[in-house]
Predict the structure.
Amino acid sequence: MKKLLYPIVIGLLAVVLTACGSNDEADKKNDEKETKTTEEKETAKATEEQQKKMEEMQKELDKQKVDEKKTVAIVNDEKISGAEYNTVLSTTQMQMQQFGQDPTSKEGAKQIKEQTLNSLVGQTLLLQAADKKGYTATKAEIEKQLAEIKDQYESEEKFKEAMKQAGLNSEMLNTQIAENIPYTKYVEKEIKVDEATDEEIQKYYDQVAEQAKTSGQPVQKLEEMKPQIKEQLEQQKKQEKLVKHVEELQKNAKVDIKI
């Protein structure tokens, strides 16, 4: 059994740089050189400084990576490689940045390492459980999911660009899909949760409505938000139950962390 050690990458974090233009003065025919305004110079300088900071940050983040061939953990005699660790590490680093935290700090680096290892071990245990239960993926299911992923991009070129930035190739993506399907089937069929009750939905709505009023935002009617709230509450329940399920699997598992 191969391992799904990180979620399928179907999104792309794109940085768009907008170039500023300058206008030529009609009454200066002899002046062929374009001049930048003070504002343009300041914008260019700020962009350059921002780019430099991003490059320095990336260098610090890269220091947290491990040798791709190194075994970072063994879960029930199944090895997790450094390459797999580095992929999840990058995702975890990005998530921490999105929450306004510094992934390069000593505490941040420690938290990222623990979270990455926990994620890898948990997913491996779930995949092993799915394999034991006999969940599989058919060729048709793999092709359908691949098509759905590609449909999210404007063109084949955009899709390939996203793949490149995510550090994936066609073989890796197909492997992930083939492993993600039985994983998803297992979670859907084995991790059952109760439907969100009207009381739970009302309580959640009241909290959202209060927050909206406090911030001066318009409040939608309960009827409009009910389907969304119901889905969110049930997903939250499933996630909580999934965490507990992994903890139970881990009690009977042999997990050896190597880093």
Summary: The longest strand covers residues 71-75. The radius of gyration is 24 Å. The beta strands are 71-75, 78-81, 255-257. Residues 155 and 194 are 41 Å apart (CA to CA).
